[in-house]
């Protein structure tokens, strides 16, 4: 079980891992294998824990998105990390390859989004619509090649499919996004990667940052020089 997990850091309170693309981060209606249950099993076996091991889900990544995630090993750590998420003390940065090049090299995108639970799609809407939630991100374009662009994204809110919906709304959908890409959709692995997490350790107060680079040898990432 340990060999299946790519563990970046672990102590008594948190565990930081690489989430592979196409692996669910937590159980869902599909019943598919998921990262949270894999971590529970790892803790149970490694530390000989009777019954279920506690693992707190602090944040999520879409199934097609890969990158760095932190899970809590105690309820105290889960509560404190969740509080950091709410108070803006938890920084999540992504790389995305976009179809097209945005008009502005750097910008902040603010939209209101609503989720349709029937088809699991998220739509840009007006602030007054039922279920509308504010979504905020900022981006900087790091390079352009072959009609594509590399964006570094700082996610300020954590809405479902947020990056995918907001970049599609400026007519530069994420490469490989068949759900939101529209007529610009390009078949391929979704080029969206959570490369950096920055937060304060929930018990020691230490400032922590964890970085996992995207798969730079794979298309379309290999078109760009990626530095972190």
Describe the structure.
There is one protein chain. The protein is α+β, with helices and mostly antiparallel strands and about 230 residues long. The protein is built from three helices and eleven strands. It has helices spanning about 35-45, 75-85, 160-170; strands spanning about 5-10, 15-20, 55, 65-70, 90-100, 105-115, 120-125, 135-145, 150-155, 190-200, 205-210. The longest helix is centred in the middle third of the chain and has 13 residues, at about 75-85. It is globular and about 55 Å long. It starts with 5 loop residues before the first strand and ends in a 17-residue tail after the last strand. The model has no long low-confidence stretch (mean pLDDT about 95).
List strands and helices in order, with pairings.
Elements: E1 6-10, E2 14-19, H1 35-46, E3 56-57, E4 66-72, H2 75-87, E5 91-99, E6 106-116, E7 121-125, E8 133-145, E9 148-155, H3 162-169, E10 192-200, E11 207-211
Parallel strand pairs: 4-10
Antiparallel strand pairs: 1-2, 2-4, 3-4, 5-9, 5-10, 6-7, 6-8, 8-9, 10-11
How far the N terminus sits from the C terminus, by CA atoms, comes to 30 Å
Overall geometry comes to globular
Question: Which percent range describes the beta-strand content?
Answer: 35-45%
Strand segment count:
11
Overview in brief:
The protein is an alpha+beta fold and 228 residues long. 14% of the residues lie in helices and 35% in strands.
């Amino acid at each position: 079980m340990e060999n299946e997990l790519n563990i970046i850091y672990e102590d008594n309170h948190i565990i930081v891992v690489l989430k592979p693309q196409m692996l669910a981060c937590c159980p869902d209606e599909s019943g598919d294998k998921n990262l949270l249950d894999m971590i529970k099993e790892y803790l149970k076996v490694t530390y000989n824990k009777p019954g279920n091991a506690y693992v707190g889900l602090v944040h999520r990544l879409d199934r097609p998105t890969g990158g760095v995630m932190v899970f809590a090993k105690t309820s105290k750590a889960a509560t404190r990390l969740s509080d950091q998420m709410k108070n803006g003390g938890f920084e999540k940065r992504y790389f995305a390859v976009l179809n097209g090049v945005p008009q502005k090299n750097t910008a902040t995108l603010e939209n209101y989004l609503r989720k349709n639970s029937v088809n699991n799609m998220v739509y840009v809407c007006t602030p007054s619509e039922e279920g509308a939630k504010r979504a905020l991100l900022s981006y900087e374009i790091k390079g352009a090649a072959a009609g594509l662009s590399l964006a570094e994204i700082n996610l300020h809110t954590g809405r479902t499919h947020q990056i995918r919906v907001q970049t599609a709304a400026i007519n530069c959908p994420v490469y490989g996004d068949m759900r939101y890409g529209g007529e610009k959709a390009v078949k391929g692995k979704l080029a969206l990667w959570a490369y950096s997490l920055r937060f304060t350790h929930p018990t020691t107060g230490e400032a922590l940052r964890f970085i996992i680079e995207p798969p730079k040898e794979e298309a379309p990432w290999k078109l760009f020089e990626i530095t972190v």
